[in-house]
Amino acid sequence: MAVQINPSILSADFARLADEAKAVEGADWLHVDVMDNHFVPNLTLGVPVVESLARATRTPLDCHLMIEDPDRWAPQYVEAGAGSVTFHAEAAHAPVRLAREIRAKGARASMALKPGSPIEPYEDLLPELDMVLIMTVEPGFGGQSFLDIMLPKIRRTRELIAKHDLDLWLQVDGGVSAATIERCAEAGADVFVAGSAVYGASDPSEAVRALRDEAATATSRAAWACDH
Ligand SMILES: O=C(CO)[C@@H](O)[C@H](O)COP(=O)(O)O
Ligand SMILES: [Co+2]
């Protein structure tokens, strides 16, 4: 699969969300960080804003739910127009049932892991998913420094995907920039969320293009991609 770049609107101007979404229409997905002030110590937006965003842009929405009880709320994000819905493993009560429900409603189902959560306990769950998100910062805020210590977990997740021969995307989120995207791609990521690196740039769509080129070059020489 070609690498994908998903700008995070957490770093955009929330008073101009529609324009900010349009500014990155060359991107693969628009990453929408939903925070409830309980699962993470920050509060962003909910279902009505996702509904409006889905009408405002042609870019499909990749909703990252940093909320408690995603079993209850995630299906509403599919109904609001999200094309991909990510729940956190640490918050889900019945992740298999939840992933099946998200898929049955017509979206891609994805599971995220905080930096402290290993991938191994979720190996049997992988076939139920369309994407795994490895957080490379503690969730809650944009603009944090990339955690290099997450690279072995990205590699391990890529190995498990290969072991089970799954068509599963591997997303990284947090501190992804021109300085770190190459390491992520070499470790096995193929979907890259970038907030401050895109919206902090003078030309956000050019930043998306540059990140995509850099990730594609790194992937083409990565060992994991050779037999992919
Ligand atoms: O989920 C989150 C933060 O919890 C992210 O999606 C951030 O929005 C990424 O921002 P940068 O680290 O790229 O600035
Ligand atoms: Co996110």
UniProtKB/TrEMBL annotation:
Which residues are involved in binding a divalent metal cation?
A: 31, 33, 64, 173
> Which GO molecular function terms does the record list?
D-ribulose-phosphate 3-epimerase activity
Q: By its UniProt entry, which NCBIfam families does this protein fall under?
A: PRK05581.1-4 (NF004076), rpe (TIGR01163)
Q: Which domain of life is it from?
A: Bacteria
As for family, the record states: Belongs to the ribulose-phosphate 3-epimerase family.
Which is a Pfam family this sequence falls into? Answer: Ribul_P_3_epim
According to its UniProt entry, what is the function of this protein?
Answer: Catalyzes the reversible epimerization of D-ribulose 5-phosphate to D-xylulose 5-phosphate.
Enzyme nomenclature, EC number:
5.1.3.1
GN (gene name): rpe
Q: Does the keyword Isomerase apply?
A: yes
How the cofactor is bound: the record states: Binds 1 divalent metal cation per subunit.
Q: Report keywords, A-Z.
A: Carbohydrate metabolism, Isomerase, Metal-binding
- Organism, per UniProt? Streptomyces beihaiensis
| Name under which the protein is recorded | Ribulose-phosphate 3-epimerase
Q: Where is the active site?
A: 33, 173
CDD domains in UniProt: RPE
Which cofactors is this protein said to need?
Fe(2+); a divalent metal cation; Zn(2+); Co(2+)
Q: Which HAMAP family match?
A: RPE
Q: Where does the chain bind substrate? A: 8, 64, 140-143, 173-175, 195-196
